[in-house]
Structures are given as C-alpha cells and as structure tokens.
Write a structure and sequence with these properties.
heterodimer; A: Rossmann fold; 6 helices
C-alpha cells in the first residue's frame, strides 16, 4: 500500500534522517523507533505529504503519492502527538463535530460501546479541558473508530496512557490488522506489540 | 477595519495549534479551499453583524435611504476585501508567531485604498458606479490571490511546525 524509497529530509542544512526505506502492506504494523529529536514525527509528516522529502519518493497503491494524494487521504487517519479535540467543548460535542466532519457511518450504540471500553462514559458531558492527559489521549483514539479508515498513522500513541489503556490499544491494533488494516506508529520503545517492520531513526 | 484587525489573531491560530487545520487537510480539503471557507466564515460572523448595524446607525445619523444603499453596498464589498486580506496576513503570522505586528501592518497598508473609496461613496452623488467598480476590481484581485497566498502560508507553517 505505502512504499517509501530513499527518503531523506533536511532542514536548515541539517540532515534530520537519510535514506529511509519503508513498505507497509495490508495487515502490517510498522514502528518508528528513535530518541527524542531523531525525526520520527518528521518522517510521519513526510509520509502524509506535509513535509517534502529532500530526496526519495513515496508511493501509494503503486502511484507517486502526490499524484494520488486525496485517494490516500481517504484511507488514512493521522493522530498527532498534540490533541485535536476542542478543549472548550464537552466530549459529546467533540464526538458530534468529528462525526459530522468525517461523515461517519458509526451509530450511537457503537460510540457508547467505544466510550465504555475507553472508560470515558461518565465524562461525556465534561469539558475536554478538565480531562487528564491520558483521558484526552484516549478521546483522541475515538477518532480511529469514527473515521473508520484502513491506514492508521499515529505519533507516540502510548504516551500518557496507563497499563490497561496500553493493553486495550494493543488489542485494538491486532483487531485492525485482522481486518486488513495497517498501522505506522512512532514510539521510543515497543510496548510488546508484534510488528512486521521496525525502522530505527 | 478595526473589527477585522482585532479578530485576526484567532483567524487560523486556534485551528493551527490544536491540529484541526491538518485534520481538515487530511479530510480532503486543499489549503486553498480551507482559506476560502475560513474567509467566508470570518465575513459572516465578524463583518455581517456590522453590516446589519449600518441601517440603525443611518437612522440615528439622519442619512437618506439612497445613501444607505450606497453605504451597504460599499461596506459589503469592502469588508469582504478586508476578510481576504486578513486571511493572508494571519496565515503569514502563523510562520512568525512571536510578532503579530507584521500581519496587522499588511492589513492596514492594503486596506487604505478600500477605506478611501468606501468613505468617498457617501460624498459622491453621480459617480457611484465608478467607485463601486474600483472596489469590485480590488475584491476580485484579493479574492483570487487569497487561496494561493493563504494556502501556501498554511502549508509552509504546518511544514515548519
């Protein structure tokens, strides 16, 4: 599905990373590992075409990504390390906005089940600004269910999560791969997930 | 112009900081289209309330109905120009987050012709159409420039964020 060939990124004459190759097929998980500042987020942004690589190119379904960009975006959910939920609104309002924004087919019982699984069902009417970092992160993962897309690109998905939530995410990853979805995520260390490719930056 | 300048700070800033600009883009909206949508929403929520207050001000200031129509037309065109200029300058501010002055100065400089022609309309009895044509010309130029300039600035600011 996604192939990256000889990817290098330079900023202000400083090489962030060079000659990175990656390939992601259906049902695969790729992890990007590295220290702080090694370029994990930059590589993820390069994959979603926000940053232009100085050398190399990315292919989506066999075509150069730039020529097939909006088809790629139709199949991708990107969750950044920053929260995208609106802090002044409640969880319920944020879910409503996301459902309208992504024209989601997910129905109310499915949302309620997801909220219960994430243990957020009692905070539905609470403003996002009053939630803890971990709870905000879990709310962010609800977008994966609402958007319901094949490729998940996640930046530091396990930061600020407790052990139960990490286990839940691991299970979610496995379920997604079983449905022929694919995942690229960045992390300092692998929390015990079976990955098909490991890229060290 | 004052309302436009004051509201510039929040034009893109909040969406940029919480990642919603990126989400909109990944949802299939090009940066140009995002800037057009934001400009239209800025015009509706910031400029239209002022447009609605003009008839009340005209009653209080004893301005004739004929001149009220001139005022409304010139304000509608002028405020859309200011929204477009605001979009360009605030998208430039995203790349220069420490200094809000740059964007405001750009708005002020490019707003001067708009202010001159809009204010002139109230004192002119016969040449109304020529002034409106000039304003419409400026509007077409900035409306065409806005998606390109703002879109490029949004892309660059997300790239360097």
């Amino acid at each position: 599905m996604i192939i990256g060939k000889d990817l290098s990124v330079e900023r202000l004459d400083k090489k962030i990373f060079e000659n990175i190759n990656l390939s992601l097929s259906s049902g695969n998980i790729t992890i990007l590992k590295g220290k702080n500042g090694s370029g994990k987020t930059t590589l993820l942004k390069t994959i979603i075409n926000i940053i232009e690589p100085s050398t190399g190119s990315i292919y989506w379904k066999g075509k150069v990504l730039k020529n097939n960009l909006y088809d790629f975006y139709n199949h991708v959910t990107y969750i950044a390390d920053k929260t995208s939920s609106l802090k002044k609104l409640t969880i319920k309002d944020n879910i409503y906005i996301w459902r309208r924004c992504f024209v989601s087919n997910i129905n109310n019982p499915q949302i309620e089940t997801a909220l219960k699984t994430l243990k957020l069902e009692n905070q539905v009417n609470q403003k996002v600004g009053t939630l803890s970092l971990g709870e905000t992160k879990k709310l962010e993962f609800l977008r994966l269910i609402i958007e319901d897309k094949k490729v998940w690109i996640l930046d530091e998905p396990f930061s600020n999560l407790d052990e139960d939530s990490i286990e839940l995410m691991k299970q979610t990853f496995e379920d997604h791969c079983a449905k022929e979805g694919s995942i690229i995520f960045s992390s300092h260390q692998n929390p015990g997930i079976y990955v098909t490719e490991e890229i060290n930056l | 112009m004052l309302s436009s300048t004051l509201s510039l700070g929040k034009f893109y800033q909040e969406d940029f900081e919480n990642g919603n600009l990126l989400i909109m883009h990944l949802n299939g909206f090009s940066f140009g289209l995002i800037s057009i949508l934001k400009t239209v929403s800025h015009f509706i929520f910031v400029q239209i309330p002022f447009l609605l207050s003009i008839p009340i001000a005209c009653i209080l200031l004893n301005i004739s109905n004929e001149k009220l129509i001139y005022l409304l037309t010139s304000f509608a065109i002028g405020s859309l120009i200011l929204s477009c200029l605001g979009s360009i300058s605030s998208s430039m501010n995203l790349m220069n987050q420490r200094n809000f002055l740059l964007g405001s100065v750009i708005v002020m400089i490019f707003s001067i012709p708009v202010i001159i022609f809009s204010v002139g309309i109230i004192n002119i009895d016969e040449n109304f159409n020529s002034l409106i044509n000039i304003l419409s010309g400026i509007l077409l130029i900035v409306f065409a420039l806005n998606p390109w300039a703002s879109g490029l600035c949004l892309k660059l600011s997300l790239e360097n964020n």
